[in-house]
User: What shape does this take?
Amino acid sequence: MASELAVAPISKTRLWDHLSKTDPKQTKKFTRGGGFSGTAIKPIWTILRMTEVFGPCGTGWGMDKPEFITQSAVDELLVFCTVGVWYVEGGSTGRVYGVGGDKYQVSQKNGLRASDEAYKMAYTDAIGNALKFIGVAADVHMGLFDDNKYVAEMGKEFSGEKPEPKPVSVTYITSEQAKRFRDAATGKGLAPAEVKKGLSSAGIASSAMIPATDFDDWMRWIDEAEVAQ
Assistant: This one.
């Protein structure tokens, strides 16, 4: 029996893998009161990254109408924004949400000061926090930019220079698991050539070369394969 065209399992981290790396030129260091410091990402960079992966804003991805609330805190007034960010992938629409905030009325030594940028800043903050959920600039949020060596590597990568190759260590499935995979494929009625084609589409030469971390996904691939009668 011949099976219909089999499709290799889709990586669960595909969006994260595309969006997680950040160009150091699109960041800046900051220090706040109390000695807190960190790395800020330029908002326009996150818009560029989303556009590179999903297409123009408003077509391939975009934002829902934001919702704002204000809250008093002693002499100050805070504004918070909640917004949904949607994106289209593989014919389906995904949506993530973020919350951001800023001070609309600030208490200073010489009195109160109102900020005409507060709503915009809260909105921008909310979008950035939503995009974290699909991995945009994840390396910054994970603290990798505290490592100067990593930042240098990213600088080379985004400037077109090839970073020094790192040794890759992959653990493959055991011989017992490879046999389970082959037996499951045979029991399903998948021809060896079809199995080989499916593995090859993911860059895997044979069942013995399936990464151990992907074994369950490949067994599921066999279970979900449709076999023509």
Q: What stands out?
A: Helices lie at 14-19, 43-54, 118-131, 138-141, 148-159, 175-188, 192-201, 215-224.
